[in-house]
């Protein structure tokens, strides 16, 4: 999957599931989803379920860190690395 398509898919998931369609709070792809209250720990589990079920990834417990999951930019990089 191309990076822009992946970004759009991940961005769309976050907007629809955590912001209920409102893109305004998500100012940039580098913005922390946790620090800015967009996603909480339950949201992280929802995100992981999406990555595993819809994208066919296997997420290990050790990978559940902000460096992988805390922004759209981090998510794109993480998914790209997992898809290799």
Helix/strand/pairing category: mainly alpha
Biggest sheet statistics: none
Which term fits the overall shape? globular
- By CATH, the topology is Non-ribosomal Peptide Synthetase Peptidyl Carrier Protein, Chain A
What count of structural domains? 1
Strand percentage, roughly? under 5%
CA-atom Rg in angstroms:
12 Å
Looking at the overall shape, the CATH architecture is Orthogonal Bundle
Total count of helical runs of at least 4 residues = 4
| CATH homology-level superfamily | ACP-like
Name of the CATH class: Mainly Alpha
- The number of E-state strands comes to 0
**Secondary-structure element pattern, one letter each:** HHHH
Return residue spans where pLDDT drops below 50 for at least 5 consecutive residues. none
Overall pLDDT confidence: 96
Distance between the termini: 11 Å
Helical percent range? 55-70%
């Amino acid at each position: 999957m191309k990076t822009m398509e992946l970004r759009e898919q991940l961005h769309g998931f976050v907007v629809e599931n955590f912001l209920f369609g409102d893109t305004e709070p998500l100012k940039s792809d580098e913005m922390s989803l946790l620090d800015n209250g967009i996603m909480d720990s339950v949201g992280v589990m929802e995100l992981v379920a999406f990555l595993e079920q819809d994208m066919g990834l296997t997420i290990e417990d050790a990978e559940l860190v902000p460096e992988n999951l805390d922004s759209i930019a981090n998510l794109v990089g993480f998914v790209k690395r997992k898809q290799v």
